[in-house]
Amino acid sequence: MKKETKVLAVDYGASGGRVMLGKYDGEQITVQEIHRFSNDPVTVNGTMYWDVLRLFHEMKQGMIKAKAYGGAESIGVDTWGVDFGLLDEKGYLLENPVHYRDGRTEGMLEKGFAKIPREHFYGITGNQFMEINTAFQLLALKEQRPELLARADCLLLMPDLFNYFLSGVKKSERSIVSTTQMGNPSEPGWVTEVTEKFGIPEKILTEVVPTGTVLGTIREEIKEELGIGEMDVIAVAGHDTQCALTAVPAKEEDFIFVSCGTWSLFGTELARPIVTEQSEKLNITNETGTDGRTSFLKNIIGLWLVQESRRQWMREGKEYSFSQLEKLAEEAEPFRCFIDPDAPEFVPAGNIPERIREYCGRTGQKVPQTEGEIVRCINESLALKYRYVLEEIKACTQKEYGAIHMVGGGIQSKLLCKFTAHANGIPVIAGPVEATVFGNIAIQLMAKGVIKDLAEARKVIADSDRPVVYEPENKDAWDRAYEFYRKEIL
Question: For the chain: N or C, fewer Cβ within 10 A?
């Protein structure tokens, strides 16, 4: 009988986090949640921050709880992309990391393009342009708070910052670097042209290491504080999307994936980046994942729209569970109205239902009134936006795809899975829900030599968590809806 390997996966999302215990018996991976917590941004003096010290405290609570299960041999941390912390020369955090939804980057795209022309910028980084990207956050910092940047000795992206808190090692993991608009798309490293032209001190950037690098072990003071034994700290794919992609149970070489959550990350996996005039015009990003493979994808605002709508209804005294909202949506009239989920008015927190009504009124559509109509509008619009992006991906890769693999917490919405299959006219293979955690665990197991490679990891995950298949229906109706959506909404 093979020895059981136990590891801890720490997964921070934009609204919450959890510490999960992964066990591998040589055939299957099982996951067990041992600690869950909220991730609540804090606004002070008009700036929105991540409460990073609270988040680290919650991680340590999970490490303490793991003792009841016999502990773990290693720990890996994944988070959202683009955000970072700054350390001084003694290694102290200068201030809490600023939230990507903070308004400081407004207008920074155009200022950035004045320094580096857009086409050339894309050519050297291969990244989708978004104001929230690290490069534009640093440009805002250079312009608005140059004294803070001058004091910085080191920049660490969020998962790398937590790894530093754990191990004392300052390194930058490749997948999270690939979200910054400052990373080299073809090999580990930074694009110094960006730092030079944006006036960002190059000294603050640390060595870029491959996904799956063993950074070291837990600091002695943390072991003493928590009463735990030795644990390796492994730089898993720091960007949660790349952990989720690691867990896609695809058998075929060419496949489409959607990592569903607050954001929808829609794309395919390639052996090397696509950085062309066409991909630049379509604003498709190249991120680096496990084994150095490229994720050719687009960031689409996802179930944030439902989550924030639900928060608004709660503020109005209407308490709905997500399952109740989904039932109301199923009962609502189909194809009543659509939105572009990526329209700028849907990015900030606030009254999303009212913004959807205003959008529909402005575009000459029926205005949704009920909660069910709002949620149906969001889900249909997401499914149709997926189809639009699928066509863009196919145009760049010159490949056809027989199915869409959907992973992540968003696939708990059976409605979204069904609509995605219907809108795209191909089956949706949904699972695992805990893709990010499975991927985090698998990368640790590969780093430890327990699992051989990515192909074996995906087979193990497929055997550990069987997916659900949704078949397409109502092709003609969805085709008509898509033609309207493509011509009138986008």
Answer: N
